[in-house]
Amino acid sequence: MTTVGLIGLGAMGSGMAASLRRAGHSVQVFDVRREVAEAFTHAGGTAHETLASLGSACDVIVSVVVNAAQTEAVLFGDGATPGCAASMKPGSVFVMCSTVDPNWSVALEARLEAMGLRYVDAPISGGAAKAASGQMTMMTAGKPEAYALAEPFLNAMAAKVYKLGDSAGAGSKVKIINQLLAGVHIAAAAEAMALGLREGVDAAALYEVITNSAGNSWMFENRMAHVLAADYTPLSAVDIFVKDLGIVLDMARASKFPLPLSSTAHQMFMQASTAGFAKEDDSAVIKIFPGIELPKGKA
After folding, report:
1. Phi/psi class of residue 44: alpha, beta or left (left: φ > 0; alpha: ψ in -120 to 50)?
2. How, if at all, do strands 136-142 and 124-125 pair?
3. For residues 16, 107, 255 and 160, what is the CA-based torsion angle, rounded to 10 degrees?
4. pLDDT tens-digit map of 68-117
5. Model pLDDT, residue 298
6. pLDDT of amino acid 44
7. Which of 136, 222, 239, 293 is most buried, judged by most C-beta within 10 A?
């Protein structure tokens, strides 16, 4: 039986692990917060104390960490602690779910192939709720032999698994374009709500009208609800879009392609981050606008 492991039980990873378990798989997990990994196993599964132990036990490993640097660390170690790559069996598959520079993903595939390992470039989208229900989207690229092992687990975690190419990079490119739109839409939603507040429009009424009109977007409907509730608990933090829009701009810069809206949105998130809102929900980008009184939520 093919065994699956998952690294990173954060907002997305915990839901993905639960979806794997719900599909009948015996899930093996690792998280730097040992108590979080142990808590997951109370309903079944196995927690590993080291990445090396997880690597040797699994045929497919799904990595759900924040960025390329953390992915490097879980694979190859951080100098003090070994990663999982050295202990993975030849032919095992590493599924990378982070938002990264596509060129970095291409290089990682080559590096793992040189070690006898397979790779699926598989960024994810949909948020914590869809991850928990197995309804998220995966933008994947990889060789057929990697899919052969990983596909049952991909299908257990996502409602939509898009196969975008037979080598790494294509999945990450599509994810980057998704993040371009997501970041620009959040920034535009915040700007629109801020203008309404500045002009004295009732925030709840504005939200009701826009979400039933042509100007609505999924990001307006979702993120401006956070603003109305005055709840900036970070489901996706401001600094995520500082990072992701930065990757968007780096990719476009390499081919000298202009992205005026992305550049502006990136600066808005940068401003919010340096103003002290880096770890707040990305809807906190609305806090950069002067002269407005934000909703205080329910007392």
Report:
1. left
2. antiparallel
3. -20
4. 999 999 999 988 889 999 999 999 999 999 999 999 999 999 999 999 99
5. 73
6. 84
7. 136
**Mean pLDDT of all residues in the chain?**
96
Residues 142, 117: contact at Cβ < 8 Å? no
Residue positions annotated with a catalytic role: 175
Structure tokens that stand for 250 in this block: 């780096």
Q: How many CA atoms lie within 13 A of 230 on its CB side?
A: 7
Return the closest-CA partner of residue 266 out of 178, 172, 179. Answer: 179
The total of other beta-carbon atoms located within 10 Å of residue 105's CB is 26
Q: How far apart are CA 112 and CA 95, in angstroms?
A: 11
Instruction: Check the CA dihedral 153-132-181-267 and report its sign.
Output: negative
Three-class SS of residue 155? helix
Residue 13 sits at the vertex; the CA angle it makes with 87 and 126, to the nearest 5 degrees, is 135
Under 8 Å CB-to-CB from 154, ≥6 apart: which residues? 95, 120, 122, 138, 140, 161
CATH class assigned to 173-288: mainly alpha
What percentage of the chain carries pLDDT values higher than 90? 94
**How does residue 218 score in pLDDT terms, banded at 50, 70 and 90?**
very high
Tell me if residue 243 falls in helix, strand or coil. helix
205 to 127, 193, 197, 210, 213: CA distances (angstroms): 26, 11, 11, 9, 12
Does the domain spanning 4-167 belong to CATH 3.40.50.720? yes
Query: Can you say how many angstroms the Cα of residue 243 is from the centroid of all Cα atoms in its chain?
Result: 11
Domain map (residue ranges) of the chain: 4-167, 173-288
Angle, to 10 degrees, between the axis of helix 203-210 and the axis of helix 170-198? 130
